[in-house]
Write a structure and sequence with these properties.
The chain is an alpha/beta fold. The protein is built from ten helices and nine strands. It has a single domain, classed as Alpha/Beta hydrolase fold, catalytic domain (Rossmann fold), CATH 3.40.50.1820. It comes from Microbacterium hatanonis.
Amino acid sequence: MTERATVVLVHGAFVDASSWWPVVLRLLGSGHRVLAPAVGGRSLDGDGRYIRNFAERVGGPVLLVGHGYGAAVVTVAGGARNVVGLLFIAGYALEQGESIAQIRDAFAPTAISQHLVPAMFYGDDGEPGTEITVAVDEFPRLLAEGLPEDEASVLAVSQRPMSVSVLTERASGEAWRTIPSWGVVSTEDLTISPDLQRFGYRRARCRDIAAFEAPHLVIQTHAAEIVRFIDDILGEIAADG
């Protein structure tokens, strides 16, 4: 009997691993093995290496699932020897040598572009850098339309900043070249253009692309649908042997 893959969930920008809670709750309830590590959002390559090592430590087959920025991370991290599938959710399926800024510039700007708040921070080496968050009062509309107001407000005031330098960092790998991939488009996304999402998924030759009338945080507004899609993917991977 083929060993069932562990689902490793990688969160996106401006949120942390807890953003996956509705998906995690359902996956655990269905008896799946699931892990949701946190990434720092300071370096695409650094986050990619961390998730690659994390996946390898799991020990068995892994389905890597990335939301938003997390999709770019799994694109880089997916070269881990035990990764058997990639799922991009409302995210960036980057090509090797491509940056998030480059692919964003190829499409019409999204509404979030006008509501990013920069701030200075100091890295571990003491050097200054710039990080961004989303304006707190705009966060619910831009990322979480459809969520209860109190839940969206909690997300808005507990954001995880992202370093601006991540946006221009070029992807060091493109795991979708050799690993079966799937995609989810959020058709009402005001953070990452739905057209950008579709373009990346088609370029990655995704086996199946699902689309939901949802905001960027589709993993919360449509958690049940996301879990059904993941379950279908796991079944397909198991059938492949």
